[in-house]
Amino acid sequence: MFTLDQVRCFVAVAEELHFGRAAARLRMTQPPLSRQIQRLESILAVTLLDRDNRRVTLTEAGRAFLREGREILAAVDRAPATAREVAAGRIGVVRIGFTAASGYSVLGPLLTTIAEELPRVRVELEELVTGQQKDALDAGSLDLGLARPPFDPARFDSRPLLAEDLVLAVPVGHPLAASAGAPTPDTLRREPLIMHSATNARYFHDLSARMLPADHAGVVHVVSQIATMVALVAARHGVAFVPESARLLGIDGVAYLDLGEEARGVVRLAAIWSRTNGNPALHRVVQLLGAD
């Protein structure tokens, strides 16, 4: 296999088309320079240079190898700086898992911040519920999760991102929208309820059950996605407990009602990551979260 020194010698001669000038450029004498070129040609089993007493010219093989040789030397020159940038977290990949609802609130601004502050860090996204994110973080297939509490502090570090109100989505013109004050549990029990899935949306299911502790006999639909829930409310199929950020969906025909002090700031979202994850780019992103 040829050496980097041989490639440097060849590139110098190919660019200067003169052994004397190439030797001076490399701060060496002509005989060892000639030997390096001869060894390179022997290793490659091709003639790279045509030379006589008056001039040096490149063969077709020489022109092709010059292009590749320049790329090799450029890559070698870049490698130390690239390695330092990767170690510092300024170059790399961060794989982020997110819940559907976090896509309405914090995901967009987070991606904007990463793009502005860490432009050479590539982000890969995957939409997953919190339980799936935890498993993926443990397995190493995700670096960062945008997930709902609680988290096991022995497994995960976390940083709070958002605390928003739980509100009641009702069709526009619904009598509850004209009532003074927050609707009471007795009032809500008389309403057809669009409920969160206990398996695929457990966090919101439990919050809703806390707001309306009953057997949910009035549940007319059970769904997993907040966007679907709000669309059903707009179609006048019932009412639903949703996070305040559901307003950002911009679905017409829906009013959002305050549920009172008990629902203030109860919808929480955090960034979580495995304590054993050594990805430098992840830790750069975490620093951005702290700055934000």
Automatic annotation (TrEMBL):
A GO molecular function assigned to this protein is:
DNA binding
Q: What are the record keywords, sorted?
A: DNA-binding, Transcription, Transcription regulation
One protein family per Pfam: LysR_substrate
DNA-binding in keyword set: yes
Organism in which the protein naturally occurs:
Microbacterium betulae
| HTH lysR-type domain residues | 2-59
Which InterPro entries does this one have? LysR_HTH_N, LysR_subst-bd, WH-like_DNA-bd_sf, WH_DNA-bd_sf
Q: What is this protein called?
A: LysR substrate-binding domain-containing protein
GO CC annotation, single? protein-DNA complex
Listed SUPFAM superfamilies: Periplasmic binding protein-like II, Winged helix' DNA-binding domain
Q: Which family does it belong to?
A: Belongs to the LysR transcriptional regulatory family.
